[in-house]
Specification:
The chain is an alpha/beta fold. Helix content is 35%, strand content 18%. It has 13 helices and 20 strands. The strands form six sheets. It has a five-stranded parallel beta sheet with strand order 8-3-2-12-19, with helices on one face. The chain has a four-stranded mixed beta sheet with strand order 1-11-10-9, with helices on one face. The protein has a four-stranded antiparallel beta sheet with strand order 14-17-16-15, covered by helices on one side. α3 (57-67) packs across α4 (74-82) and α10 packs across α11 (297-305). The relative contact order is 0.20.
């Protein structure tokens, strides 16, 4: 058995932000299924939102609420917006360098935003942030990192959490944080890593941890249309923010590219049905060669490697699964209905996104609520509890996890349909 003050399951931005804000006096473990970098946060392309100044506060909140169809938790949205500058300062202090323009941040705009408020690092915001944060993480002598260690279950008894189990290890902690990300891996087509398949949700369901709105699942409008790929390549919404157009097979525009994601995705699917085709097109040609290659170097090179030159060709695109708005029900300090169990990031549901996420709010949520959770635990860490019961050896395989999650998704869909 390995014993820790704080145990974090997951190595995306939410878990790492939490770890770096926690007291250096705590003995902390980060346990992750693959390598640190194998998180969906690392794949993020577009940006991270920030409140530019007080004149933008009302619009930022409204953009978030409108995109979420007003099913968001307003207090949580306000908290995120109001703490966004501190979140960016936290990242900058750790050494993150955002793309600059004329001595100031280079703000980008994405769908659903009334103004440009997204900070970016070219078109690899996740890698740009996490390469720095992983370095800081490895510098901390109080943090142990366990890679290639899938967690198969929580250790819960009588409403209290005592730790987690992997296939060959038991981690004991009275303060367990699930930062396990979403569930894209259970879908045939997703922009997510295939191993991120809702483990945290399945373990929560098995142990009577409350979930909320798990059927709120977002499809990104523009993934590259390919057959036989394990993970769909995402083409950032910021490409449309810079002026790229959605076209059908007749080279005609058919929707407003800057509407929120769910609206644009539905418009693409309707056009595909109308034309009886498997994909539509994204044209970046109007951006010009310099902007395509310099503003979006990773996307340009990746498309070129896959046989599409975005300077001269339309890019075949199709909507696919991207993000989970619902998740483990928690308050703004990450607390769940199980004592000693916390959730943060995409694994949790504090109510930020409603039924549809506004672009670039996910990374901001990770940092804001990861730090809130850490500061809560810096004051309120639960003390050790004695284990007076036998820890069973039961294991759940991925296929069973998928069935558990899909069943709960259908239940949530039925409940929402009946309530309407």
């Amino acid at each position: 058995m390995k014993k820790y003050d704080i145990l974090i399951v997951g190595s995306g931005l939410a878990g790492v932000s939490t770890a770096l804000e926690l007291s250096k006096n705590y003995k902390i473990a980060i346990v992750t299924k693959k390598k640190l970098e194998d998180s969906n946060s690392y794949l993020a392309q577009g940006g991270i939102n920030v409140l530019k100044d007080e004149s933008d506060r009302k619009a930022f909140i409204e953009d978030t609420m409108k995109a979420g169809h007003y099913k968001n938790n307003l207090q949580a949205v306000e908290k995120m917006v109001d703490m966004s500058k501190d979140a960016i300062n936290f990242l900058v202090d750790l050494g993150v360098k955002f793309t600059m323009k004329n001595g100031d941040f280079d703000y980008a705009r994405e769908g659903g935003h009334s103004v440009a408020r997204c900070l970016h690092i070219d078109d690899e915001i996740g890698k740009g942030i996490l390469d720095v944060l992983y370095k800081r993480l490895r510098e901390r002598t109080n943090i142990d990192i366990f890679e290639d260690t899938p967690i198969v279950d929580l250790i819960v008894k009588e409403g209290k959490c005592y730790g987690v189990k992997s296939c060959d290890k038991i981690f004991i902690s009275t303060n367990v944080i699930l930062a396990t990300g979403g569930l894209g891996g259970i879908f045939d087509r997703s922009t997510n890593f295939s191993h991120i398949c809702g483990d945290g949700y399945a373990m929560a369901i098995k142990n009577a941890v409350k979930l909320k709105d798990i059927s709120y699942i977002q499809f990104h409008p523009t993934s590259l249309y390919e057959k036989g790929t394990e993970r769909q390549f995402l083409i950032s919404e910021s490409v449309r923010g810079e002026g790229a157009l959605l076209l059908n097979h007749k080279d005609e525009r058919f929707t407003d590219e800057m509407k929120p994601r769910d609206i644009v995705s539905k418009a693409i699917l309707r056009e595909m049905e109308k034309e009886n085709v498997d994909f539509e097109y994204l044209s970046m040609k109007s951006l010009g060669e310099d902007k395509i290659t310099m503003r979006f170097p990773m996307i340009f090179n990746e498309l070129k490697n896959r046989g599409v030159d975005a300077r001269y060709e339309n890019v075949p695109i199709v909507p696919c699964q991207h993000y989970t708005m619902g998740g483990i029900e928690c308050d703004m300090n990450g607390r769940t209905n199980i004592e000693g169990l916390f959730a943060v990031g995409e694994a949790g549901n504090v109510g930020i996104h409603g039924s549809n996420r506004l672009a670039c709010n996910s990374l901001l949520e990770c940092v804001v609520f990861g730090r809130l959770l850490a500061n809560y635990l810096n004051v309120n860490k639960l003390e050790d509890r004695e284990i007076d019961f036998q820890i069973d050896k039961e294991k759940i395989d991925g296929e069973k996890y998928s069935k558990i999650i899909f069943e709960r998704i259908r239940e949530d869909e039925r409940a929402k349909a009946n309530s309407n």
